[in-house]
Automatic annotation (TrEMBL):
Residues 132-255 form the Helicase ATP-binding domain. The keyword Ribosomal protein does not apply. Residues 358-516 form the Helicase C-terminal domain. Coiled coil: none annotated. GO terms for molecular function: ATP binding; helicase activity; hydrolase activity; nucleic acid binding. PANTHER family: DNA POLYMERASE THETA, PUTATIVE (AFU_ORTHOLOGUE AFUA_1G05260)-RELATED, DNA-DIRECTED DNA POLYMERASE. InterPro entries: DEAD/DEAH_box_helicase_dom (IPR011545), Hel308_SKI2-like (IPR050474), Helicase_ATP-bd (IPR014001), Helicase_C-like (IPR001650), P-loop_NTPase (IPR027417). Keywords: ATP-binding, Helicase, Hydrolase, Nucleotide-binding. This is Helicase. The keyword Cytoplasm does not apply. It comes from Neotamlana nanhaiensis.
Amino acid sequence: MSSKNTLSLVLNSVELNPQVIALVEKLRNENELDFQEYKLLLEGTYSLLNSKDEDSYNLGLYSICHVCEFLPNDNFLLQILNDCIVSSRIFLYKEMLPILEGVKESFLDLYIKSFYTLETGTILTKDQKKILSLFNEHKKIIISAPTSFGKSRIIEEIIINNDYHNIAIILPTIALLSETYLRFNVNSHIKENYNLINSLGLADTIAKNNRNIFILTPEKMDMLLDEKPELKIDFFVMDEIYKIQDDVDRKSVFSNCLYRLSKMDNHFYLIGPYFNDFSPNFRKETESYFKKFSSEIVQKDTYSLYKMEKGEEYVIRNKTLKKKVNHKLNLRDIIKSVDGQTIVYNYRKDYVESLSKDIIAILNKPDEDETSSDLIEYISESISAEWSLVKALKKGVAFHHGSVPRYIQTEIIDSFNSKEIDIIVCTTTITEGVNTSAKNVILYSNALGKKDNLLTGFEVKNIKGRAGRFRVHFIGRVFYFHEVNENDRDIILIDYYDKEELSPEDVIQIDKEDLKDKNLETRERLEDLLAKNKVPLSLLKQNKYIPIHKQIGLINFLRANPIHLVLAYFEGTHPDKDQLSEIFNLSREHLFNERDYNDKGFRYWELSRLLKYYVYHTPSIKQLINEQTNSEYIDSKIRSAFKLITHYFEFAFPRYFRAFENLYNFVYREYHDKPDGGISLKYLITLLEFGFVKENEIALKEAGLPNDIIRKVSNKFSDCNSLEEVKLKYLYNPNIISNLSEFEQKIFRRYI
């Protein structure tokens, strides 16, 4: 059998205990050992788990997980296994094994377990206990630990065991927001003591409650701090903290959010996987403590097919397979051989959809065995029955990427975790902190976004980490079809603290007293330049993340060409079509970033047409899909429509138009020598950002409801001006949404 499938961790640890390695490898391949072999393996494992060396401890966990996966049928051996679990200090392993219920626990075992059991009843692992102790000692900590480690479990314990008034939980994705909100909402210790705020529509409830938990993206948190500068956060968490360096499009807002929160001199808990160090400058500035943990409580069996020769054998449980040259044939063999659910990674949205069709063909599920569900019916009616996602779901398969609407992404994950779906094909949308019940992960590609942009070792390990879920699996399986590396990131750096020469846009967001050397020189040079051009710094500062040279370019253009002040001018709530065209054209020419300006998927005339169609006709999603002219294929039309909504209408256009309004009005007032006057794009921006302009509809959209459900219940909540009022009205009269289908009511209850 191939030795190329063994975990790199284990290979690096052979000198620690070669006998344990050899016996685990035999157990993996043959699924059983004889009595003496089990005994030797467990005795060696017990010794490893009592070592203070982290590699030895992790090797001990690797062994325990494999023994738990292939249990011996002998009471004496089960007693030794129980002793190993106690030594590992991961007591929840035992709860996963009903067969150990009959094994006697000594007084010492119970005493040790009680040491790791909190007053809330939460049982911590050895390393989780260390993290909680580190927080209690330092109050400002940064933790690097593998996926499925249980980093986020510590958040609730920190909150419960401290007396904070305002807490911020900053998460990068809507999926993580929803998951965290729902988890907090069922935790009575938190729910009874804190007001949970997961949208700006609930911000009005802050004044009524002196104990709040804000569960927001960094963008929303940044907006909240702009709207309520007096707000003091006592404790904050930032999950997936690596995005502060990796996410090119969002790292400035991550940095700005972290900077503003940490300036409040509060406690914090920054977490993420697989990095060896964190900005020394930030740690020095905030007097915070960094610690890396490496233990994997869900171990991984890795199958590196790219290292194997054609015809080379490898074993999955007790099935022997042979490596083939064709990737789709290998995919077929693996899917038909594994037990448990599977995530398949590919690097492009259209490739993800295409691969899901290949998997359906591999499964060859008869039409009479097709699945029917409320989700399938809902998508068919509200989007399209011809969408390949509908066809995939009927076969127990789904795809998941950034152009799938967020509420459908959530339903797909729920259906997967409830085992209604067996296989998900995805981009990185699932691999960034979303918990699933997948036992198997197949990296069908080693690229990210583009074929020549290879996954880093950090990104590979993050995807790999989705294989196996603690309290469900002991072992996750990972299959590599292409060459990858699994190196951890050396260090996470933060532009605001570590970059010698910041961009002008970042420089103006930082308090001047915090700048030094070249960055201070840049700030002073900017202030001189702006003074000469008679442009206030505060004007540019409020247009966050729009390049300063572009803002000044638009100001100078309008000053030199005042006819455009006339062409874009309107009175009332919204512009007519000609005025909107003028505003769009000026914004595109002067404010758009390079990616949006050169987007081949949406030529500027097509964007202009679709913008006006959306604003003046308020189409349904079906109508908007039909308006996509860049392809005749329904899947491409749907991808295009959802990109248009999520990227342009809800995100990019509001940002550009806010900046345009500020800059236009500055020049308009300067030209007319008036302290006020100009145009208001509030109606337009609100309509684009939310799809609605009424207060109750905006509140429902902010909560996460899809537009078609909002339209069906809008009149029921027409007298509500906030999400809090919507919730109260529904609480007192649940039948108010009886016009919705059962599935739509389920979605309503989830978000409201």
